[in-house]
Amino acid sequence: MVFDVETPNFRNDRMSAIGVAVVENGAVTEEFETLVDPETFFSPFNIQLTGITPESAAQAPAFPEVWETLRPVFESGILAAHNAPFDMGVLRACLAHYGIAWRKYAPYVCTCQMARRCYGLPHNNLNVLCDYLGIGLDHHRAGSDARAAALLLIDELARGMRSEDFKRFYYMLPKTGEVR
Predict the structure, then answer these.
(1) Do the domain assignments include residue 21?
(2) Is the CB of residue 26 less than 8 Å from the CB of residue 79?
(3) What is the pLDDT of residue 177?
(4) How many CB atoms lie within 10 A of CB 131?
(5) pLDDT digits (tens, 9 = 90+) for 104-122
(6) How far is the CA of 35 from the CAs of 13, 24, 119, 154, 160, in angstroms?
(7) N or C: which end of the chain has fewer CB within 10 A?
(8) Residue 139 maps to which CATH number?
(9) Residue 139: domain span
(10) 154 lies in a domain?
(11) How many Cα atoms sit within 13 Å of 7 on the Cβ side?
């Protein structure tokens, strides 16, 4: 399961959007995307980057409601994201902020780390890799980024990369002072 989050500000402790692409047997089989009301402030930089405004997010569900929908998918296998430590950190911070208990460690792979070994390109940004592979991308839109990272993962696996070689575990319990 590949996911991508967008954040409303530089704190990167809440999400304003999330996209998910489920990969099974070498194909994207399911996709989900939603805005998320981060219940916090938006910085001008993030608004310009993502196009998500406080007004558009105010109509969206808050993280706990989104998590109820996504939790079964997140528990169904290994997680993946491009620059995964960022997305995993935002997920952990959201869980902590809302006092949602999940698991102590979550298994994940990073498609960016896999790309470094797989393609040997000087830059491994998602947009660069998508251009290289001809994958369509509406960058910094959570659903598009998740789908693109999923297609990237599928290509990396088809080229002989083994997810087991890149599997890591992210500590998901709150950091000291993270829970409100």
Answers:
(1) yes
(2) no
(3) 61
(4) 11
(5) 999 999 999 999 999 999 9
(6) 15, 25, 32, 26, 35
(7) C
(8) 3.30.420.10
(9) 2-171
(10) yes
(11) 16
